[in-house]
Amino acid sequence: MSETKDIASTAEQSSVASPPASPPFQSSTAPETANPDSSITSQAGLTSITATIAPAIDPEESDDGSSARGESIVSSSISVTDSVLQYRIGNGRTYHKYKDGKYSLPNDERENERLGKSTMSSFVYSTTRLVAQEGSPTIIDVQHNMFLLSFDNKLGTAPPNIRGSNVEVKRVLDVGTGTGIWAMEFGDEHPETEAYSQPFDYIHTRMMTSSIGNWKEYIQKCFDNLEPNGYLELNEIDLTPGCDDGTLKDSHALVEMARLWGAAAEHFGRPFQNNRDLVGIMADVGFVDIHAQTFKWPSNPWPRDKKHKELGYWNYDNSVAGLEAFMMAPFTRVHGWTKEEVTVFAMQVRNEMKDPTIHSYPN
Prior knowledge:
This protein is an alpha+beta fold. It has a single domain (2-18, 38-56, 105-362), classed as Rossmann fold, CATH 3.40.50. Helices cover 33% and strands 18% of the residues. The protein has helices at 2-10, 68-72, 82-85, 109-115, 142-150, 181-189, 215-224, 253-268, 276-285, 306-321, 323-333, 339-353, and strands at 46-52, 87-90, 93-96, 118-120, 123-125, 130-132, 138-140, 172-175, 200-206, 226-237, 241-243, 288-295, 360-362. The strands form 5 sheets. It has a 5-stranded mixed beta sheet. A two-stranded antiparallel sheet has the order 2-3.
């Protein structure tokens, strides 16, 4: 647990709480090498980090009526440029051309379906995937439901999402939450909120790794656009696969995919972010009361625990649906692979993702 202790001690002046260890998984086919007492530190799985800005200090009256904080918030208008309206087509997928090549995931209908815009009535669990039952269709947002399941049916881990916390927020910004369902549901739970204005009381972000070039700059901008006592919540996944019992080997295609994908992300200038570093960055920027929690998302329904098994079904369904989308641009543009080579390798990765004897999860 040395990593956790180091984080807490280096940020002690900013009231940083060490993240609690998540409970270990127990597999229904656990090998003899599995350690049932193993726990996980802050780098594993989904990491949810919340922080707040210290209360404001009443400023001394100045002649010009300005304050240092007011000067740090700059309003700007953004015009729609030609690059936003143009598209890049490659290997049968469509990508946006804004800052061409920096964001490697497609923006076509197949990607929308992966993010959750699929028409399903209800799910039953088979041995390999989620299956839709017949009935009246509803919209299922796969990734959003994975977060809800992880957070015990809460929309986040920051105080505005905790029932009975009596925290009221009026201006809320979501970043990277996908289809928009998070903002709609948060608005339903908090009718006092406004759709958009500046500065904000609460900024909620999801899965921005490999989308941001400079995390300190990004977190500083969040800080500059929050009110005193405002909240920032980061929900991030380290995309390197992890394993507690040795069933995931360095020779597995899952490990090789993460290595190649990470190298491509570095090339694009949007590297994978080490979640352990985010707590320190937030403290350096000026946030206080920083709390990190970790959650595991199994690669398939290998755990014995009911909740984690359900997460495994959802995670497998979501990951397999987007596998080629994750790989196609990074592998063809950076590593020089052909579309056919990516497709064959994706089949190998997919087979490992559904193998219940490989007890992996995003690390």
